[in-house]
Amino acid sequence: MSFIDRHLGPRESDRDFMLKTVGFETLDELVDTVVPDSIRLEDDLDLPAPLSESEAQAKLAEYAAQNTVMNQMIGAGYYDSITPAVIRRNILENPGWYTSYTPYQPEISQGRLEALLNFQNVVMELTGLEIANASLLDESTAVAEAAVMMHRANKKVKNGFFAIDSRCLPQTLSVVRGRAEALGIDFVVTDFADGLPEGDLYGVVLSYPAHDGEIRDIKPLIDQAHERNALVTVAADLLALTLLKSPGELGADVAVGNTQRFGLPLWYGGPHAAYMAVHKGMERNLPGRLVGVSTDTAGKPAYRLALQTREQHIRREKATSNICTAQALLAIAAGAYAVYHGPEGLRAIANRLHDNAARVAAAGVEAGLKLVHQNFFDTVAFDTEGKADQLVAAALKAGINIRKINDDRISISVGESHGDDVLAALVEALGGELGETDEYGIAEEFLRTDEFMQHPVFHTYRSETAMMRYLRRLSDKDLALDRTMIPLGSCTMKLNAAAEMEPISWPEFATIHPLAPADQAKGWKALIDELSTWLVAITGYDAISLQPNSGASGEYAGLRAIRAYHKANGDDQRTVVLIPMSAHGTNAASAALAGLSVAGVATAEDGSIDVDDLKLKIEKYGDTVAGIMITYPSTHGVFEEQVVEVCQLVHDAGGQVYVDGANLNAQMGLAQPGKFGGDVSHLNLHKTFSIPHGGGGPGVGPVAVRQHLEKYLPGNGYEADAEGKLAKAPLPISQAMFGSAGVLPISWMYIAMTGAEGLKSSSEYAILNANYIAHELNELFPVLYTGDHGLVAHECILDLRQLTAESGVTAEDVCKRLIDFGFHAPTLAFPVPGTLMVEPTESENLEELDRFIEAMRTIHAEIKEVSAGTVALEESVLRNAPHTADVLTADTWNRPYTRAQAAYPVSALRLAKYFPSVGRIDGAGGDRHLVCECPPLEAFDLEAK
Ligand SMILES: *Cc1c(COP(=O)(O)O)cnc(C)c1O
C-alpha cells in the first residue's frame, strides 16, 4: 500500500458511499463543483513522483549524511545539551504529547497544562520573578517582545526610547532593530560603559551573561534605570541562573531568554522554547500564553489558560502580541528536564560546565592566550593576537566548532555532553594541556544563595521508572490525535505520520549548530532548498522564506515585505491594511506589529467579503491603502467565487494582496494563491504539511511571495555586527535563519511521500470529509455558510444559535458534552459566535466521522429535551458535562439523568471510554484570582465529595 493510502482516512468503498450520500458520482465531480473555475489549477503540480516510507527515509538519510556531526562549542544562544532518553522517547517521540492541540479545552488538557505549569514554575523560580508565560518563539523575538511590552507598560515615561545592550546576541539586535523600526520606536545600542544614555529612557535591556560569556554586575544599571522611571529587562541564560543571582533579586522587571539547553537538540537553530517572566502587576501586558490554576465544579484545583482576554483572538490589533502558536512541546520538554534533574541536578550540571570552562580558561592562558573576562559561566573568551582563524581551524581539525567573534577574539562554550576527551582535544588545539584548576571561580558577589524549585514535583521523579510513569499519567489525562479526531476548524489536525516524525531525531539533523560552517550543513541546505522549491511549486509563488517560526510570524514577515515594497516605490503613506471582520485575530495583531493600521471590511449575508463595502473602503482610504489580508478559502469554509475580483480591486487601488494560507489544505493541487491574485502568503506547515501541533507549537510559517517582493523576504540574522550596526536590509524576523529548521524534515517527508497526486488527493478528501459531515448534520445543526451549490470547502460552521435561543444550551455546553463521548471539541465561537467550526481533514476515516455524527445527533436529542422543558437546563446532562469518574461513582447521585446516560450515552463507549480528570472549569474565577504556580499538594483534597 502506498503512503497516501495510509495518509487518507476513507477506504475506496467508503469514499463511494460518502460521495453518494452527498449526491455525487465521483470525487472529481464533487471537487469541480466546489472549487470555482476562475481559480482552478489546470496542470498537475510540478513535484517528483511519490516515494514509499522507506524510500523517502533513505533519500533523506542521504541528505543527513551530508551534514557533519561535530562537538558544538560555538554558543551564541545555542548550546550542546543532552536530551534525556526518557524525555525524547516519552515526550518528543510520543504522539500522546506531540499530536495534542493548544489547551483551549482545559478539561481534556490537564496533563499538558500541568507540564506547562511546571515550565512556568521553573522560569519563575530561576528568574526570581512572580509570573512567567508558557513559552515564546525564540530568545531574539522574546527580547523584541519585551522591548515593546516595556513601552506599553511604562506609564511614567511615555514617548521615550529604549537602550539595548550591545552584548546581547547579534541576531537579537537585528530582530529587535526590525521590530522597533516597524513601530517607529527609538532605541540606542550601547555597552553601558558610560552608564545609561541621557534622555527619556523608558526601558533598558541587559544581557546576563553577555554573549561573549562575561558576567557583569548589572545591579547599578538596574538601580539607575529605576531612578529614572525606566523598566529593565534582563536577557538571561536560565542554566546560569542556577548559580547566579536572579534577575528578580537584582531588581529587574522582566527576564527573557531561551531554554534550549534544558535538554533540547540544537536542530540547526530551532524549535526551542523561549521564556518571559515579569513582576506581578505586568501580567496583563505579557505576550504569549499563560497557564493558571482555577477550580472545577467539584471545587478541585484545575489548570487552564489564563487571561486570554489579552490575546489576539479577542483584542485583535490591540492584543499584547501576535503570537498564537508558540513552543508548547519544547516548553513541556524543558520543564520535564527540570523535573527529572531537580534543582540539585541542574546545579550540578551548571557547576560541571563552569568547572570545565574554567579548565579551558586555565589551559588557554597557559598556552599564551589572553582571557578576556575573569567572571564567566560556561563561555570563555580569549584574545589571540590575530590568530582567531588559525585556532578555529585547529579546533575544527579536532572535530570541534568554536566561535570566532572577530579576527582577534574567539569564544568557547562548554556543553553538557563534552567529556574530558573532547576538552583535552580542544585545549590541545589551542596549544595547551587539560588540567584541573580552582583559579577561575565566579566572584562571590554574583552567586545566588536562595533556594529554588522546592515544590515536590521537582523532587519526586528521579528514577526513570517514576519519570516514565509521571509522563504517562499526565498524557493519560489528555485527548490528542492518538485517541480521537480533533475536528478543529482552521487548525487542520491531520495525520502526523510516524515515518515523517522519525528523522527529526537523527543526530545528523538534531546536533547541527545554526552557526556551524556552511560545509557542515550541506544536507540541511539541500533539504531546505528542495522543500522551498516544492512549496513554491505548490503555491504558485516565485520565492519563499522558511524563517518564520509560526503562522503569525509569517504574517508579520509578509506585511513587512509589503511595507518595504511601498516604501521603495516612494509610497510611505500606504499604511492601511483592509481586513475582513471574519479574519483570524493574528492578521490584525500582525498588522499592528508591522506598524500598519487596520480597517475592517464587512462580511456579506452569505459569508463572503462584502464587495460593496470593500469598494467604499478603498475609496475612503485612497492612496493610503497598503493592501488587503484575505483568508482563502475564507474562514467561513467556502471558496468565494469573487476572490479574483477582490484581488483586482485592491491591485487597481495600488494595494498588495496578502492571502492567509492557513487554509491551504483545501487547495493543494487544486488552486494556487500565487496565481489567482495573491502577492504574498504564509503557510502553516504545522497544519497543512503534517508538522504536529505539539499542544501549541512548534510551528513553521513560511512566507511565499511573487517576484517583486522577493528582495524583501526576511534576511540573514548574522549580517549585523556585534554592535548591531551595518545590518543589511532586510532584517531577520526570527533568531535562526531557518527558524524551526529541526521540524522541516516532517514536511519534506510528507511531500516526498505524497507527490502531486497525493497532495491533490489530500485536498479532495478533506473536501469530501467536510461535506459528508455537513450533509449529515445540516438538518439538526444548520451549516451556516455554503457556496451557491450548497457545498462547503474543507470545513463547515454548525450554527447553534437557534438551538441556544430555544433551550439555553450553548455551543460551549456542546463542546463539554462531546468530552463525555471522548471527542475533542470543534473550534468554538470562531469566526462566528454561537457556532462550532468542524474540520475533519483527509486523515479521518468513515468510522470516526460517523462516531462524531452519532455523538452530535445524540447531543441534539439531549438539547431538544431541554427545549421541550422535560429537563431543566441547569440540571441537564449538557450543562453538567463533562463527567468525571469521581462524580459518576460518588455514593450520592441526585441528578435527573442516570449515571449510564452521563458516561455511556452511546453504547460503543463501553468498549473504550475516556474520563476527564476534572469537571467543568471556572474560567472567570481563575482570572479574578490569578495563580500561575504549581499548587501545593494539600490543595488536592482527595476525599470524595
Ligand atoms: C492558525 C492560523 C493562523 C496563525 O497561525 P499560528 O501558527 O498559530 O501563528 C493565522 N491565520 C489562520 C487563518 C489560521 O488558521
Automatic annotation (TrEMBL):
Family: Belongs to the GcvP family.
HAMAP family documented for this protein: GcvP (MF_00711)
Stated role: The glycine cleavage system catalyzes the degradation of glycine. The P protein binds the alpha-amino group of glycine through its pyridoxal phosphate cofactor; CO(2) is released and the remaining methylamine moiety is then transferred to the lipoamide cofactor of the H protein.
Catalytic activity field: N(6)-[(R)-lipoyl]-L-lysyl-[glycine-cleavage complex H protein] + glycine + H(+) = N(6)-[(R)-S(8)-aminomethyldihydrolipoyl]-L-lysyl-[glycine-cleavage complex H protein] + CO2
Species of origin: Rothia aerolata
Domain Glycine cleavage system P-protein N-terminal: 5-429, 459-726
Known EC number: 1.4.4.2
CDD domains in the record: GDC-P
Coiled-coil segments: none
Lineage, highest ranks first: Bacteria, Bacillati, Actinomycetota, Actinomycetes, Micrococcales
Name used for this protein in its record: Glycine dehydrogenase (decarboxylating)
